[in-house]
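Hi all, posting the design record for the shared folder.

TITLE: backbone redesign
STEP: 1 of 1
STRUCTURE INPUT:
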């Protein structure tokens, strides 16, 4: 299901996520939503890897087809490996994961932003900073603002 951009100059911003969850509590509920984002052309999955960190710190990679049960759509991402992630990246991702947990490492292109990003690059612009504000931080800021009113 991965589609490589034909020209990186015309690609959208590329982001990554490491999402950790209890190994025994994987519901697969989010995967059909990811499939929907891809189907609608909002994102392009470049890499999707799953790893498990055992209680003793041992890390093992899991094949997507091992996790796919036919109801999540996850199997369509089997083989989603672009080559962007190296061994150091995966080791760093594993460091972020708590023992006894499983994590999905997702690298994706924001296809929705490609025309805007391409136009900026054609105009000589370049990204000099970026970031993400966690939802928890937004909620805390709003709650703090409400308490001062």
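Okay, here is what came back for every position:
SEQUENCE:
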């Amino acid at each position: 299901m991965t589609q490589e951009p034909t020209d990186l100059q015309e690609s959208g911003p590329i982001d990554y996520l490491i999402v950790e969850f209890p190994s025994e509590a994987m519901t697969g509920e989010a995967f059909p939503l990811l499939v929907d984002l891809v189907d609608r052309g909002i994102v392009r999955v470049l890499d999707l890897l799953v790893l498990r960190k055992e209680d003793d710190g041992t890390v093992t990679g899991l094949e997507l087809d091992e996790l796919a049960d036919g109801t999540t759509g996850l199997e369509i991402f089997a083989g989603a490996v672009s080559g962007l992630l190296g061994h150091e990246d995966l080791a760093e991702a594993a460091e972020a994961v708590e023992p006894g947990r499983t994590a999905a490492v997702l690298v994706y292109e924001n296809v929705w932003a490609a025309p805007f990003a391409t136009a900026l690059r054609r105009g000589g612009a370049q990204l000099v900073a970026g970031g993400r504000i966690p939802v928890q931080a937004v909620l805390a800021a709003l709650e703090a603002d409400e308490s001062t009113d």
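COMMENT: The first strand starts at residue 14 and ends at 22.
Let me know if anyone wants the other runs.
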